[in-house]
Amino acid sequence: MKTLIATTFLAAAALFTVPAASAAGYDGDLEKANIDVTNEASLQRGANLFMNYCMACHSTEYMRYNRVGRDIGLTEQQVEENFIFITDEAGDPVGVGSLMTNAMSEDYGEEAFGVVPPDLTMTTRINGEDWVYTFLKSFYIDESRPLGANNEVFSNVGMPHVLWELQGWQEKVVDEDGNERLELVRSGQMTPSEYDRAVRDIVTYLSYMGEPMQLDRQRIGLYVLIFLGIFTILAYFLKKEYWKDVH
Ligand code: HEC
C-alpha cells in the first residue's frame, strides 16, 4: 500500500514538473510570454500578424473565420476584407463561414521545407505559450542551414525566419564568460520592445485559438460568482425566517 501511495505521488509530481517545452526537445530557459487573452486589441493585432505572416504556410483548420471575428470583436466585413486570402475552386474568396485552411499543398511544403508546416490551432496547448514566444524570438543567422537561419529553441528547424523584416537579424555570440546568447546585428522595422509586443500578440491569438472557450469561461465565471453572492443572501434570510419560531 505504501509503495502504491508513494508511486502515485511521484507520478503526480512528475506530471507537474515536466515543462511543456519538452515536447519540442529544448531544456534551456524560456522567456515568459505574459499574455492576456481578454485583451481584445492584442488579439486583433495578433490575428492580423498571423494572417499576414503565418497563414501562407500554416493552417488553423479547426477554426472558422466568422467565429474568430466574432470572438475577437471584428465584423464579418472586416474579416472578409483583411483576413481571407484563399479562394475556392472557382477562384472566388472563400466565405466567412469556412474553415481556416491554407493554400499550400502538403507536397509543396515537404519539398520546400523538408517538412509539412504543421497546423497551429493547438500549438500553444502542445508546446506551451512561453515556448512559442521564445521560439519566435530565437531565430539567428546560420549559413550552414538551407534557409540561412537556425533557431535556439528548435535546432535545425525547417521554418525560415519569416518575421526578419520586423525583428532584423540576430547572431549567436559567445560572451566573456563563455555563455552563448543571441545579439541583434541588423535591426528591423521594429525596436526590440515593439517586436516583443508583436510576438506577444501572436501568442495571445494562438492561445485563444487553442482554447476559444477561455474567453467565455471568464465571463460566465463572473456571472456564476454574482449569482452565488445573491443566492447566499437569500439563503441567509430564508434560514432566519425558518429558525425564528424554533427558538
Ligand atoms: C514559409 C513557411 C512558413 C511560414 C510563413 C511560417 N512557418 Fe512556422 N513552420 C514552418 C515549417 C516548415 C515548420 C516545421 C519546422 C520543422 O518541423 O522543422 C514550422 C513550425 C512552426 C512551429 C512549431 C510547431 C511544432 O509544434 O513543431 C510554430 C509554433 C510555428 N511554425 C509558428 C509560426 C508562426 C507564428 C508564423 C508566423 C509568424 C509562422 N510559423 C510562419 C513554415 C512556416
UniProtKB/TrEMBL annotation:
<keyword id="KW-0812">Transmembrane</keyword>
<dbReference type="GO" id="GO:0046872">
    <property type="term" value="F:metal ion binding"/>
</dbReference>
<keyword id="KW-1133">Transmembrane helix</keyword>
<dbReference type="GO" id="GO:0016020">
    <property type="term" value="C:membrane"/>
</dbReference>
<keyword id="KW-0408">Iron</keyword>
<keyword id="KW-0349">Heme</keyword>
<dbReference type="GO" id="GO:0020037">
    <property type="term" value="F:heme binding"/>
</dbReference>
<dbReference type="InterPro" id="IPR002326">
    <property type="entry name" value="Cyt_c1"/>
</dbReference>
<dbReference type="InterPro" id="IPR036909">
    <property type="entry name" value="Cyt_c-like_dom_sf"/>
</dbReference>
<dbReference type="InterPro" id="IPR009056">
    <property type="entry name" value="Cyt_c-like_dom"/>
</dbReference>
<keyword id="KW-0479">Metal-binding</keyword>
<keyword id="KW-0472">Membrane</keyword>
<dbReference type="GO" id="GO:0009055">
    <property type="term" value="F:electron transfer activity"/>
</dbReference>
<feature type="binding site" description="covalent">
    <location>
        <position position="58"/>
    </location>
    <ligand>
        <name>heme c</name>
    </ligand>
</feature>
<protein>
    <submittedName>
        <fullName>Cytochrome C</fullName>
    </submittedName>
</protein>
<dbReference type="Pfam" id="PF02167">
    <property type="entry name" value="Cytochrom_C1"/>
</dbReference>
<feature type="binding site" description="covalent">
    <location>
        <position position="54"/>
    </location>
    <ligand>
        <name>heme c</name>
    </ligand>
</feature>
<feature type="binding site" description="covalent">
    <location>
        <position position="57"/>
    </location>
    <ligand>
        <name>heme c</name>
    </ligand>
</feature>
